[in-house]
Amino acid sequence: MTQQTFPSSRSRRRTLAAVTASAAAATAMVASHARAQDDTPTPEGTPGIVPIQSTTLGPMPTTGAIRGAPVGTQPTGVIAVTATQPASIQVSTAQIDAKIEVLNIVNGVMENPTGPWVVSWYRQTAELGEVGNVVLAGHVDYWNVGPSVFYNVRTLTEGDEITLTGEDGATFTYAVQTNDTYGVQDLIGGTLAEVVSPTETAMLTMLTCGGEFDYVNGEYLSRTVVRAALKPAEPAS
Questions:
Q1: Looking at the domain assignment, is residue 138 inside a domain?
Q2: How do 96-103 and 78-80 pair as beta strands?
Q3: Are strands 171-183 and 219-230 parallel, antiparallel or unpaired?
Q4: Side-chain half-sphere of 98: how many Cα atoms within 13 Å?
Q5: What is the SS3 assignment for 23?
């Protein structure tokens, strides 16, 4: 089985304080992210995968990026991987095929994804090819659009694969380990800080709104958090 080695210099440049800011920022996002979602969400309780259909009010999802070679085409042996920013995400079991934009943590607050079909990566978290936690966020639904890019994230189960493509065309496949829903108050209490903090292995964390919708205050009462681990590259057949 092919092993991947990761550069450590970029990881060292990301000081613990900087990445810890993402944890605090994620907690701050709990109170603000929902208001960017649809005030009239799709009713809960729909079983199984819900097909995502855009309207004329929102752009169709697209990767907009050149994909690299399939996993397994690399030669056997140790492969040195250069860190790269994620450019697109594909999750067939959740009907996700989207571009990834680069956002920042500003004054301790994670910027919200800019549209219904785009996924956000925060530059204060790990890049692809680094040991650490790659943190992504996306809308579950959107004003005047309805179900959006991360609508089916709640259906992901253990073992489901998530493929991220980097700016350099390299692909990284992750396998879902957990899919949990946390109440906003639990997250503010420290749970979210734990799931977005740096990790000792290559991990992926996906965040979106979930749970019941508070129509009075116009926000979701919970957050869906998916954790996935990088799969080792397979030897060429």
A1: yes
A2: unpaired
A3: antiparallel
A4: 28
A5: helix
Q: What is the pLDDT of residue 71?
A: 38
b/e sequence 166-193, b meaning 16+ C-beta within 10 Å = bbeebbbbbebeebeebebeebeeebbb
What pLDDT is attached to residue 175?
98
Domain of residue 130, residue span: 3-42+50-230
Number of domains in the chain: 1
Residue 235 belongs to some domain of the structure: no
85 alpha-carbon distance from chain centroid: 13
DSSP readout, 70-111?
A: PTT-SPSSEEE---B-EEEEEEGGGTEEEEEEEE-EETTEEP
136-154: pLDDT as tens digits: 999 999 988 999 999 999 9
In a domain, 184, yes or no: yes
Q: Which residue has the higher pLDDT, 2 or 146?
A: 146
* SS3 category, 149: coil
Confidence of residue 70 (pLDDT cuts 50, 70, 90): very low
- Tokens linked to 23: 């944890």
Which candidate, 116, 127, 118, 49, places its Cα nearest to that of 89? 118
Q: Position of tokens 């991360």?
A: 150
Examine residue 236 and state whether it is found in any structural domain, yes or no. no
Which secondary-structure segment (H or E) carries 172?
A: strand 171-183
Query: What is the CATH number for 180?
Result: 2.40.260.10
pTM of the model as a whole: 0.70
